[in-house]
Design goal:
single chain, about 475 residues, alpha+beta, Rhopdopsin 7-helix transmembrane proteins, Heat Shock Protein 90, 2 domains, 5-stranded mixed β-sheet, two-stranded antiparallel ribbon, rod-shaped
Length: about 475
């Protein structure tokens, strides 16, 4: 066993370690299509170096593996450069046939001809391949501009110089042409050139490995940059969305408030004129109208206040039955006007933590929606409010016997500006949902089997100390 054998085995070990590191890296970051030719070439080159090193024990079979591995490594590198230029991932049939023909011819010459004949063939083929690799690497450098490609071009240039020089020496120096040689009996100059060639070949694969690592790191850096931009964009959109919603709510409520306030102003002027003339025939009607419009304005202002009130944690202990009774008292004029029968029953001791005015706002919104829905019925208009309690939740269930909620609206019922009626603004239910969430609860809605709608408010129960 010579020093050559040991060096071959040592270099093969380095290449195998590089292949293992590449496998780990790509397992973590993902293999990219078309970027694996060079990796399989690295495996083939490792096998080739092991074959040359093991020839001390296994002779010709090991040398066959060595030559085959070297050829496959070069062809894999050629396919890699071809992919970088053309994005083609197929392996041409003529290339596979040529590679097989090369190996068979080499083995035939190994049995029938002296070493110099085989060496001439090897050097000629490798000179052509390395020249192609050098020109391809230079061409891709012009497109890509990576400094790694300059190093890669340099390794291919060294390989071409070495293989071509060995070819010239083998053919042109008489001292070498008439003596049979084996791989390990070459003159010193050929040995030096061979080792420079093979080391440059190994360096070319390591250079491609670092080039691929550079692309992976750049890809990760790009992804990190894109993720950062995504978060910035989402935050910006969130602020814009909140600003747009706030502005839209302000515009809508301002529009809604302007109408009743204008009516109040006109009614007040009429009332003033009639009082001056001592004409009281329409006085009661005008006063009733003023009361209704004042109530409408007060409700809208309460909603506006609830939307923009700071969201601090509610701390007040609320008895739900009392909040429901107060909400009913507030909206009682509308119940009377539309001849709606309302019943309230259930657990009178159920308590939650929150702000009573906000709970009342939810109930007023729900009852008001039910009253509007019941306008389509001529008789028997009913609303039922039930208060139920279990181990952790207080449930307030509001049912009516109206036409129910349009199924096309039900899925988006709680979104801003979605309404089940032509007269609604689409704010009340959205606001009710926000208030319920602020209190740690929620609201659901649906249609009853016998037509009509139901709303269920769920709020966490206050625990006794």
């Amino acid at each position: 066993m010579s020093g050559d054998h040991l060096v071959f085995i040592a270099v093969a070990a380095v290449l195998i370690i590089s292949a293992v590191n590449t496998t780990v890296l790509n397992r973590d970051h993902g293999w990219r299509q078309g970027e694996t030719f060079w990796f399989w070439g690295l495996i083939a080159l490792s096998a080739g170096y092991l074959g040359f090193g093991a020839s001390a024990w296994f002779g010709r079979p090991a040398l066959t593996i060595g030559n085959a591995g070297l050829l496959v490594a070069y062809l894999a590198m050629s396919l890699q450069l071809r992919y970088w230029h053309t994005r083609k991932t197929n392996i041409p049939i003529w290339l596979m046939v040529g590679a097989i023909g090369y190996i068979l011819t080499l083995e035939y010459l190994r049995m029938a001809e002296p070493y110099l004949v085989r060496a001439t063939m090897i050097h000629a083929v490798m000179s052509i391949i390395t020249a192609y690799l050098f020109l391809s690497a230079i061409g891709y450098y012009r497109k890509n501009g990576s400094k790694q490609l300059i190093v890669l071009s340099g390794t291919f240039a060294i390989e071409f110089i070495c293989t071509f020089t060995r070819l010239v020496i083998t053919l042109g120096v008489p001292a070498y042409t008439n003596q049979p040689m084996t791989l390990y009996e070459e003159p010193l100059v050929l040995v030096v050139l061979r080792w420079i060639w093979l080391m440059a070949n190994a360096m070319s694969f390591l250079t491609v490995m670092t080039f691929e690592l550079e692309k992976t790191l750049n890809k990760n850096e790009t992804l990190r940059s894109l993720l950062a931009e995504k978060h910035l964009l989402l935050n910006a959109l969130s602020h814009v969305d909140r600003s747009d919603k706030s502005a839209a709510i302000g515009r809508t409520l301002s529009h809604e408030l302007r109408q009743p306030l204008t009516s109040l102003l006109l009614a007040s002027k009429n009332l003033q004129a009639q009082l001056k003339e001592n004409d009281l025939r329409d006085l009661v009607q005008q006063v009733d109208f003023l009361c209704q419009e004042c109530e409408r304005s007060a409700n809208l202002i309460n909603q506006l206040e609830a939307v923009f009130r700071p969201q601090h944690a509610p701390t007040e202990s609320i008895r739900i039955m009392a909040a429901a009774q107060q909400a009913i008292q507030t909206i009682k004029p509308r119940l009377t006007e539309h001849q709606v029968e309302l019943t309230l029953h259930g657990d009178s001791n159920c308590r939650v933590i929150g702000e009573q005015t906000q709970i009342e706002t939810i109930l007023i919104n729900l009852i008001s929606n039910s009253i509007t829905a019941l306008e389509s019925r001529s008789l028997g208009r009913r609303i039922d409010i039930a208060i139920q309690a279990d181990d952790s939740l207080c449930k307030i269930i509001v049912r009516d016997n109206g036409p129910g909620i349009d199924p096309s609206v039900l899925a988006n019922l709680w979104q801003l500006y979605v309404t089940n009626t032509h007269a609604g603004s689409g704010i009340g239910l959205w606001l009710s949902k926000q208030i319920a969430h602020r209190h740690g609860g929620d609201i659901d809605a649906g249609n009853t089997p016998d037509s009509g709608a139901w709303f269920e408010i769920r709020l966490p129960i206050k625990r006794s100390a």
